[in-house]
Design brief:
Helices cover 43% and strands 14% of the residues. It has 16 helices and 13 strands. α3 crosses α4, α5 crosses α6 and α8 packs across α13.
């Protein structure tokens, strides 16, 4: 099996956790792999079976005005048509030449399977699939992609092209059944490097920590409002914000506006070893995201024995119940109450801390990669007489139960942790 993966970029010194999951899939699936990604100055060493072809792409961060049209639509059909036209024009401007390079490399590599990571890279997969004539799998890593699908009809048309769509959380998988048959949806997950992230068993500081890119989807305005309330009740605590990004200046202004300079520390990007240390020193991991898949930073915190308070948009069902608290997104008061309650209930905190590494271990990257590898082999296997792709128990959305729903009815999805080999 020869696999071509298209992704935004590999982990780098500026973003050591960025797309680390895709890197791990390529590392742990023992098949020849061609990676097509935006060029970077540094990236982790690649195993011998993986080849990287860097693409000359500029950073294509979506402008705030366009982002508002996609994720906060208050316009009618004409306005949506303008947003779609703008997105298509941006795609051609940013990716036209890189797609030509990707097609050239794909013809040389001759993949048996093309895997696109995110809707933004789907144009590459569609072009390669048309030329190489092999199956195409699309991974959706974030609930923001589902929101874009809900808003923009042309994206829903593109969604019909991949042979399978892999969702990294049960909630994303359920929402996809609005537009796709269940048989075309795979349930996967993100993962964690349990060799690196582990509980050191050391005393904890009176400290909260969040590890995330500084961008709008992470809900930093809600988080800062929530911790402001927490610090009134627990004034000897502080918050470490680990990461960097386009929202850093705005977040810094908000910290000063709220008078939180003594309580909130923006550390910038830290080496992975330092992230492990900070997680082990902290009493609680917090994440107030308004759009997520299943955050790898949450799994890393749990692997370090650090309980968590997150929003329901973090898609942590099936694991947060034993390891912390989930609250509605966009509700700083509920977030503050959950943080305070967990920090002041030592017995509960201890139970969550003890359970967290066991829960995280179910998401070890090697287990995630082994499961996805089995799904790839299933897709490429010759179908049985009279059948489509032969089913694998527990690998597809709803595979272990009767067929679920079309739009508007509830769907029960297997816990992705139980799907790991």
């Amino acid at each position: 099996m020869r696999i071509c993966r298209i992704l935004q970029s590999l982990p780098s010194a500026a973003s050591p956790g960025g797309n680390i999951g895709i890197y791990r899939l390529a590392q742990y699936i023992p098949e020849p792999c061609l990676l097509l990604a935006r060029a970077a100055d540094t990236y982790p060493p690649l195993p011998s079976h993986v080849e990287l072809v860097p693409l000359a792409l500029r950073d294509s961060t979506m402008p705030a005005g366009l982002r508002a049209g996609v994720f906060h639509p208050g316009v009618g059909p004409v306005g949506r048509a303008r947003v779609q036209a703008h997105l298509i024009a941006r795609t051609l401007r940013y990716h036209g030449r890189a797609v030509a390079v990707a097609l050239r490399e794909a013809r040389r590599f001759r993949p048996d399977l093309v895997v696109c990571h995110s809707l933004q890279r789907l144009v590459y997969g569609v072009a390669i699939r048309a030329v190489v004539r092999c199956p195409l799998v699309l991974y959706l890593h974030n609930s923001s992609e589902v929101e874009a699908l809900r808003t923009l009809p042309f994206l829903r048309l593109l969604l019909r092209i991949p042979d399978r769509v892999a969702a990294v959380s049960p909630d994303i998988a359920r929402q996809l059944t609005t537009w796709l048959p269940e048989a075309r949806i795979w349930l996967t997950s993100t993962g964690v490097d349990t060799d690196r992230f582990s509980n050191w068993g050391r005393p904890r500081r009176r400290q909260l920590v969040t590890v995330a890119h500084l961008k709008w989807t992470k809900g930093y305005d809600v988080l800062l409002e929530a911790v402001q309330q927490v610090f009134l009740r627990l004034p000897d605590y502080r918050l470490l914000v680990v990461g960097d990004g386009e929202e850093r200046e705005r977040i810094t202004r908000d910290v000063h506006r709220r008078g939180l300079q003594e309580h909130v520390v923006l550390t910038g990007v830290l080496p992975r070893a330092e992230v492990v240390r900070v997680l082990n020193e902290s009493r609680l991991f917090v994440l107030a995201s308004i759009h997520e898949g299943l955050p790898k930073a949450l799994l890393e915190a749990l692997a370090c024995g650090t309980p968590a308070v997150v929003t329901d948009r973090c898609n942590a069902e099936g694991l947060i119940e034993a390891t912390g608290v989930s609250v509605p997104a966009g509700d700083p008061a509920a977030f503050a109450d959950a943080v305070t309650a967990l920090l002041t209930d030592e017995a509960r905190w201890q139970r969550c801390s003890e359970r967290s590494p066991e829960v995280a271990a179910r998401y070890d990257w090697r287990r995630v990669a082994a499961r996805d590898y089995a799904l790839y082999r299933m897709l490429l296997a010759p179908p049985a007489a009279g059948d489509g792709v032969p089913p694998t128990k527990g690998s597809r959305l709803g595979a272990a139960r009767p067929a679920g729903r079309r739009a508007g009815r509830d769907v029960t999805v297997d816990d992705p942790a139980r799907l790991a080999p």
